[in-house]
Write a structure and sequence with these properties.
alpha+beta; 37% strand; 186 residues; four-stranded antiparallel β-sheet; seven-stranded antiparallel β-sheet; elongated; single chain
């Protein structure tokens, strides 16, 4: 029996139980549901069974699974990772910036973004090394006076910046410099 067959059987079994008696570990269901969008788009004999089983999952459980998948978690030395299943994105925070790629096993594009400087127009300074702090669906890169933050939401990944103080007292405008790389074309 393949892993796909095992997921199919468990997902079908889950859908067949009344809501109050469904015997299902949340992680196993999360992994099974992660396969639904990819497999449902592939014309196979399993497609209709997957769609039927996924439709039987209560909306509250679906929301909880999505929230769990969007949690930003440590994944290795200095790295944090998360998925954004609603937008089929895989997110990698490497301690310096963000890398985004399509979620799932299908290779595709990648894109990277990194804050490299801040200051006033014509007077930029490099940012301090980041201290990464993650909690639930939020990650902050604390860089001295500049905090770069990300929130992994169902609508997508939101990025923002919080300055503890202006780079120069009385500055009328502030400039942030970001470096972008990857293989996306405008």
């Amino acid at each position: 029996m393949t892993l796909l067959d095992d997921y199919m059987n468990k997902l079908t079994e889950f859908a067949a139980h009344p809501a109050a008696t469904r015997p299902w570990p949340a992680l196993g269901l999360a992994l099974a549901l992660m396969t639904v969008p990819v497999l449902a788009a592939t014309p196979t004999a399993h497609s209709s069974r997957l769609a039927d089983a996924a439709a039987a999952v209560p909306p509250e459980l679906r929301a909880a699974i999505g929230q769990n998948l969007r949690s930003i978690e440590p994944v290795g030395a200095g790295h944090h990772g998360a998925l954004n299943p609603e937008n089929r994105l895989a997110l990698d925070f490497d301690g310096q910036g963000l890398a985004v790629a399509p979620g799932g096993k299908v290779p595709g594009w990648h894109w990277r973004l990194q804050l490299t400087g801040y200051g006033t127009p014509g007077h930029l300074q490099p940012v301090a090394p980041a201290e990464a702090v993650a909690a639930k669906q939020r990650l902050e890169y604390r860089r001295g006076a500049v905090t770069e933050w990300y929130e992994n939401r169902p609508e997508g990944l939101e990025q923002g910046f919080t300055l503890a103080r202006p780079p120069v007292a009385g500055a009328a405008s502030i400039e942030l410099r970001l470096s972008a790389s990857g293989d996306l074309k405008a």
